[in-house]
């Protein structure tokens, strides 16, 4: 077999991303015996148009809830909607058997929002612009005993 061509792209096709994701998922299933990877979205939609205004996207896998992206337009921030959406994502992770959740945010985004909701910082990595960091957070989803 000839070695594969290796390319770098900022425009991968959906089929390319699926090959990588599905192959890693198959590897994880074979190694762990656990078939539990599922996408998760909590969406805020306009009640009149049904248009998505913002939301949370992530996934659950191998007992962890991963929150990848969380965005709300400025007009909805501070209204309690974000808190409710975060609680809904955490609750769904718990229903799916996740013992913990992980995410990262950027220092100019919302680290204090997450900490206010019981998330704990476990690492930071400097990034651009200078003086900015990615902040990694986790939260235990196990019910208190």
UniProtKB/TrEMBL annotation:
Name by which UniProt lists this protein: GNAT family N-acetyltransferase
Domain N-acetyltransferase: start-end pairs: 1-142
Alphabetical list of PROSITE patterns matching this protein: GNAT
Superkingdom per UniProt: Bacteria
Species whose genome carries this gene: Rhodanobacter hydrolyticus
InterPro entries xref list: Acyl_CoA_acyltransferase, GNAT_dom
One Pfam family hit: Acetyltransf_7
């Amino acid at each position: 077999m000839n070695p594969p061509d290796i390319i770098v792209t900022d425009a991968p096709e959906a089929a390319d991303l699926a090959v990588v994701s599905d192959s890693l998922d198959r590897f994880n299933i074979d190694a762990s015996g656990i078939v539990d990877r599922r996408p998760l979205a909590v969406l805020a939609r306009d009640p009149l148009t049904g248009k998505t205004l913002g939301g949370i996207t992530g996934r659950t896998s191998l007992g962890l809830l991963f929150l990848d992206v969380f965005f709300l337009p400025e007009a909805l921030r501070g209204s309690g909607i974000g808190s409710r959406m975060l609680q809904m994502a955490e609750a769904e992770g718990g229903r799916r058997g996740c013992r913990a959740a992980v995410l990262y945010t950027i220092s100019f985004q919302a680290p204090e929002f997450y900490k206010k909701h019981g998330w704990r910082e476990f690492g930071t990595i400097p990034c651009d612009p200078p003086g900015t960091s990615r902040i990694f957070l986790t939260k235990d989803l196990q019910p208190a005993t």
